[in-house]
Amino acid sequence: MSKLTNALPNPADDECIRCYLVRVGDAFSCDGTLRAVSLFRERTAPNDSDLVSKVKNAGIFCDCEFRMNNARVVDDAQRAPQGHLICSATTHPESVAGCANWAECGS
Q1: pTM over 0.85
Q2: In the chain, where are the structural domains located?
Q3: Pick from 61, 58, 63, 85: nearest CA to 73
Q4: Smallest Cα–Cα separation from 66: which of 88, 45, 41, 83?
Q5: Pairwise CA distance, residues 71 & 103, whole Å
Q6: Residue 60 CA from chain centroid, whole number
Q7: Cβ atoms 39, 77 nearer than 8 A
Q8: List of E strands, the chain
Q9: How far is CA 75 from CA 5, 31, 79, 101, in A?
Q10: pLDDT single digits (tens) 50-65
Q11: How much is the average pLDDT of 21-33?
Protein backbone atom coordinates (compact mmCIF):
# COMPACT_ATOMS: atom_id res chain seq x y z
CA MET A 1 0.00 0.00 0.00
CA SER A 2 1.37 3.45 -0.87
CA LYS A 3 2.16 6.20 1.63
CA LEU A 4 -0.73 8.22 0.21
CA THR A 5 -3.18 5.41 0.89
CA ASN A 6 -1.78 5.01 4.39
CA ALA A 7 -2.53 8.70 5.03
CA LEU A 8 -6.24 8.21 4.34
CA PRO A 9 -8.53 7.56 7.30
CA ASN A 10 -10.15 4.16 7.55
CA PRO A 11 -13.85 3.82 6.81
CA ALA A 12 -15.97 4.07 9.94
CA ASP A 13 -17.89 1.00 11.07
CA ASP A 14 -20.85 0.47 8.69
CA GLU A 15 -19.98 3.66 6.72
CA CYS A 16 -21.06 3.39 3.09
CA ILE A 17 -18.58 3.97 0.29
CA ARG A 18 -20.26 7.17 -0.86
CA CYS A 19 -20.23 8.84 2.57
CA TYR A 20 -16.65 7.65 3.05
CA LEU A 21 -15.56 9.20 -0.25
CA VAL A 22 -17.22 12.51 0.65
CA ARG A 23 -15.50 12.52 4.06
CA VAL A 24 -12.11 11.66 2.52
CA GLY A 25 -12.60 14.07 -0.38
CA ASP A 26 -13.31 16.93 2.03
CA ALA A 27 -9.94 16.34 3.71
CA PHE A 28 -7.67 15.12 0.88
CA SER A 29 -7.24 16.36 -2.65
CA CYS A 30 -7.78 14.00 -5.57
CA ASP A 31 -4.61 12.37 -6.88
CA GLY A 32 -6.26 10.99 -10.03
CA THR A 33 -6.47 7.43 -8.70
CA LEU A 34 -8.96 5.20 -6.92
CA ARG A 35 -6.90 5.05 -3.72
CA ALA A 36 -9.86 5.71 -1.39
CA VAL A 37 -12.07 3.23 -3.28
CA SER A 38 -9.25 0.69 -3.01
CA LEU A 39 -8.81 1.31 0.71
CA PHE A 40 -12.57 1.05 1.28
CA ARG A 41 -12.64 -2.28 -0.56
CA GLU A 42 -9.64 -3.58 1.33
CA ARG A 43 -11.04 -2.63 4.75
CA THR A 44 -14.77 -3.27 4.35
CA ALA A 45 -15.37 -5.51 1.33
CA PRO A 46 -12.28 -7.72 1.01
CA ASN A 47 -14.23 -10.36 -0.89
CA ASP A 48 -15.15 -7.91 -3.66
CA SER A 49 -11.79 -8.21 -5.41
CA ASP A 50 -13.27 -6.89 -8.67
CA LEU A 51 -14.54 -3.60 -7.24
CA VAL A 52 -11.85 -1.37 -8.76
CA SER A 53 -12.22 -3.12 -12.13
CA LYS A 54 -16.01 -2.66 -11.99
CA VAL A 55 -15.60 1.04 -11.19
CA LYS A 56 -13.13 1.52 -14.06
CA ASN A 57 -15.41 -0.39 -16.44
CA ALA A 58 -18.14 2.10 -15.51
CA GLY A 59 -15.84 4.89 -16.76
CA ILE A 60 -14.76 6.14 -13.32
CA PHE A 61 -11.00 6.47 -12.87
CA CYS A 62 -10.53 8.49 -9.68
CA ASP A 63 -12.16 8.96 -6.29
CA CYS A 64 -13.58 12.40 -7.10
CA GLU A 65 -15.23 11.09 -10.29
CA PHE A 66 -16.89 8.40 -8.18
CA ARG A 67 -18.12 11.07 -5.76
CA MET A 68 -19.44 13.41 -8.42
CA ASN A 69 -20.81 11.09 -11.08
CA ASN A 70 -22.09 8.01 -9.30
CA ALA A 71 -24.96 9.36 -7.17
CA ARG A 72 -26.50 12.45 -5.66
CA VAL A 73 -27.28 13.34 -2.05
CA VAL A 74 -31.01 13.16 -1.36
CA ASP A 75 -32.79 16.25 -0.07
CA ASP A 76 -33.51 14.73 3.35
CA ALA A 77 -30.00 13.32 3.93
CA GLN A 78 -28.87 13.06 7.53
CA ARG A 79 -26.50 15.92 8.37
CA ALA A 80 -24.56 17.08 11.40
CA PRO A 81 -25.11 20.67 12.62
CA GLN A 82 -21.96 21.68 10.69
CA GLY A 83 -23.56 20.37 7.48
CA HIS A 84 -21.45 17.23 7.14
CA LEU A 85 -23.22 14.05 6.06
CA ILE A 86 -23.99 11.49 8.75
CA CYS A 87 -23.90 8.07 7.15
CA SER A 88 -27.10 6.16 7.76
CA ALA A 89 -25.04 2.97 7.47
CA THR A 90 -25.15 0.12 5.05
CA THR A 91 -27.48 -2.79 5.65
CA HIS A 92 -24.76 -5.30 4.76
CA PRO A 93 -21.32 -4.82 6.35
CA GLU A 94 -19.45 -5.78 3.17
CA SER A 95 -21.72 -3.85 0.80
CA VAL A 96 -20.30 -1.19 -1.48
CA ALA A 97 -23.74 0.32 -2.01
CA GLY A 98 -24.59 3.75 -0.66
CA CYS A 99 -26.75 4.38 2.37
CA ALA A 100 -30.17 6.08 2.42
CA ASN A 101 -28.48 9.49 1.99
CA TRP A 102 -27.91 8.71 -1.69
CA ALA A 103 -29.91 8.21 -4.88
CA GLU A 104 -28.55 6.93 -8.17
CA CYS A 105 -27.94 9.67 -10.70
CA GLY A 106 -31.05 10.07 -12.80
CA SER A 107 -33.37 8.91 -9.99
Answers
A1: no
A2: 17-101
A3: 85
A4: 41
A5: 6
A6: 13
A7: no
A8: 71-73, 102-104
A9: 32, 29, 11, 8
A10: 888 988 988 899 998 9
A11: 88
